[in-house]
Backbone:
């Protein structure tokens, strides 16, 4: 059997170690669809897995990469045939199942969604799990009933992947978007994506009051912890917050006050095990509701060998927008 290049995570004397290596195809895991991966991307979870900063990886050796887009090479699944273009997001890939930082992936056909007709595999991975999560967040706010007339929507972690895509989507949908960032030098970038106002991260960094001045009708939060607690305390009556990340921590030092005195709703956004119908809806929406020029402006490209460096950078908050990984 042939070998192929992949970012492989192995157990080391202290923790784990990730490196570009040759991987034997015979060691791929069970699955009914084999995909020739063309592009992947770097998400926050990829950063945790590749650097070993958190126990994301549950089996070894592991091919990292929670996202992939490419062409079906072989399939025994009724929905897919050789030549089909497909997208993979989550489902434990790069954690419990071999992922997509490799030239080949063997996957379950039930995990895949079709590449939208007008989208390239590169564009799909410029979106990746971060952008797909942003779309799920916007969908949650809209199901809650928020419209541009409801008032401004705030996005935290604004210059990161989720934040960048969320701003672009919300702005195209007509919302007034406020962007929270710890990198004020990115103000022009964020305004270029559609942000109407830039807010310094420190405004949401202190201990949260049970209730603070009402500021926003809704929020997309990729940070968690004290930031999310402050957002909840500042959300307008009847508003909603979509929580989709933990870059600031897993704790939530809040109170019940926003929920029982202002009727605020907190929506949890899971992209990993999200049911297939909602995934397909999100990708259909991404095809129409995300400006491709803005997507291109927020995207940089690296090769497989650049993944370890990018993984370290994303955990340090040094990555702006989206990073596409060209496979092979």
Residues:
């Amino acid at each position: 059997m042939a070998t192929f290049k992949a970012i492989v995570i192995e157990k080391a004397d202290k923790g784990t170690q990730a490196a570009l290596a040759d991987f034997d195809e015979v060691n791929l895991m069970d699955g009914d669809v084999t995909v020739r991966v063309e592009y992947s991307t770097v998400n926050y979870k990829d950063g945790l897995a590749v650097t070993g900063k958190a126990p994301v990886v549950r089996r070894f050796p592991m091919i990292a990469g929670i996202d992939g887009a490419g062409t079906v090479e072989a399939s025994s699944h009724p929905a897919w045939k050789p030549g089909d273009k497909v997208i993979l997001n989550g489902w434990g890939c790069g954690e419990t199942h071999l992922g997509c930082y490799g030239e080949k992936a063997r996957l379950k056909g039930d995990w895949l969604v079709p590449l939208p007709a007008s989208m390239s595999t590169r564009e799909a991975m410029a979106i990746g799990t971060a952008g797909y999560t942003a779309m799920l967040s916007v969908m949650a706010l809209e199901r809650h009933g928020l419209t541009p007339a409801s008032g401004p929507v705030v996005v935290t972690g604004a210059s990161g992947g989720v934040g960048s895509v969320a701003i672009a989507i919300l702005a195209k949908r007509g919302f007034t978007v406020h962007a929270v960032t710890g990198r004020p030098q990115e103000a022009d970038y964020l305004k270029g994506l559609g942000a109407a106002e830039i807010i310094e991260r420190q405004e949401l960094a202190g201990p949260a009051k049970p209730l603070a001045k009402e500021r926003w009708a809704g929020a997309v939060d990729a940070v968690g912890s004290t930031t999310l607690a402050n957002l909840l305390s500042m959300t307008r009556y009847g508003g909603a917050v979509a929580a989709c990340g933990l870059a600031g921590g897993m704790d939530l030092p809040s109170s019940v006050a926003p929920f029982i005195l202002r009727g605020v709703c907190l929506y949890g956004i899971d992209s990993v095990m999200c049911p297939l119908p909602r995934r397909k809806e999100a990708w259909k929406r991404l095809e129409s509701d995300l400006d491709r020029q803005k997507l291109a402006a927020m995207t940089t490209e690296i090769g497989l060998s650049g993944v370890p460096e990018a993984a370290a950078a994303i955990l340090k908050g040094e990555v702006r927008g989206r990073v596409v990984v060209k496979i092979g």
Q: What stands out?
A: The two ends are 18 Å apart (CA to CA).
